[in-house]
Amino acid sequence: VPELPEVETIRGQLEPMVSGRQIVESWAFPSGKFTDARTATGAAIEGIRRRGKYLLGDLDDGRELIVHLGMTGQLRVVEAHDPMAGDVDADSFTRAWWRFDDGDRLVFRDVRRFGRIAVVDAGRYDGLPTLAALGPEPFDPSFTAAGLHAALARSSVRIKTQLLGQRVVAGVGNIYADEALWAAKINPSARTLSRPRAAALHAALIEALSAGLRNRGTTLRDYRGADGEAGSNQHALNCYGRAGKPCRRCGAPLRRKVVDARGTTWCPTCQR
Ligand SMILES: [Zn+2]
After folding, report:
1. C-alpha distances in angstroms, 79 versus 18, 101, 102, 125?
2. Which residues lie closer than 8 Å to 184 by C-beta, 6 or more apart?
3. How many Å lie between the centroid of ligand 1 and the Cα of residue 126?
4. Residue 109, Cα to own-chain centre: how many angstroms?
5. Which of 7, 21, 141, 202 counts the most CB atoms within 10 A of its CB?
6. What pLDDT digit, counting tens, does each position of 59-113 carry?
7. Which residues are catalytic?
8. 176 C-alpha vs ligand 1 centroid, how far in Å?
9. How far apart, in whole angstroms, are the C-alpha atoms of residue 237 and residue 107?
10. How far is CA 39 from the centre of its chain?
């Protein structure tokens, strides 16, 4: 599932390929989750930003083309002269494409269809409540240890569930939440955190996401960059996906449990 490092990797690769290009034709799979894609026809893409796990394409007519990759979404540019270009249309998992004036296409493929495409007036996120309510970006100076402590203290929901909720910090999903909680030695089921422990979690979140960015994302199954390449952060994980293997800090076997319906890996010795 693409989280901040994966989405940011795609953004960085895609931006130079699509910026300044005019969309002359578009197509979408007939589902309300994707049909907005067609309304971008006629506009040019000025740049691509990221907010949390959302990609925000700035259009030159004052609108934004928003893409959420969901579980299995992939974005890539298929050049007009690519011998495989015809496969885009034959592929039953193609959910949308946008054709530029030179015939190249930006293609959105999504096997499981948890992705979403929207075209809205810039900044008008009424129809996208999760995006509208996103917490601070983890690499923004507005994301502070004190702010994280205060935000977590406002709710008695379990810490891991709050991280996944996107309101206390944007862009964290199951992989980086498990990694950060392990690094900060915090039990994923905890409901309250002291100031020092919140500060440890703040630092651990930034480090876990930084590692993911350095390694161009974590590829477990579906994630690929816009260049089609897998990330390598899966080789750097300390906790996520390692249930039954020894904790790299204390040697005890890591365990897996369900926290508010989400599979969670943790060390019962370190993360009390
Ligand atoms: Zn341990």
Report:
1. 12, 11, 9, 32
2. 197, 200, 201, 203, 204
3. 43
4. 15
5. 7
6. 999 999 999 999 999 999 999 999 888 899 999 999 999 999 999 999 999 999 9
7. 2-3, 53, 262
8. 17
9. 30
10. 24
62's tokens: 């004052």
Q: How far is CA 24 from CA 14, 49, 108, 121, 140, in A?
A: 18, 22, 16, 19, 36
Note if the pTM is more than 0.90: yes
Q: 164-204 pLDDT, tens per residue?
A: 999 999 999 999 999 999 999 999 999 999 999 999 999 99
- Give the residue carrying structure tokens 């007519």: 61
3-state helix, strand, coil in the chain (%, to 5): 30, 25, 45
Distances (CA, A) of 1 to 16, 24, 163, 244, 261: 24, 31, 15, 22, 16
**Dist. CA 91 → ligand 1 center (Å):** 45
Digit-coded pLDDT (tens) for 21-47 = 999 999 999 999 999 999 999 999 999
| Rg, Å, the chain Cα set | 20
- State in Å: Cα 75 to ligand 1 middle: 38
The length of the chain in residues reads: 272
Residue 269 has pLDDT above 90, yes or no: yes
Element (H, E) at 14: helix 4-18
Angle at the Cα of 241 from the Cα atoms of 253 and 205, rounded to 5 degrees: 100
CA dist., res. 108 & res. 29, Å (int): 10
Contact 137, 51 (CB under 8 A): yes
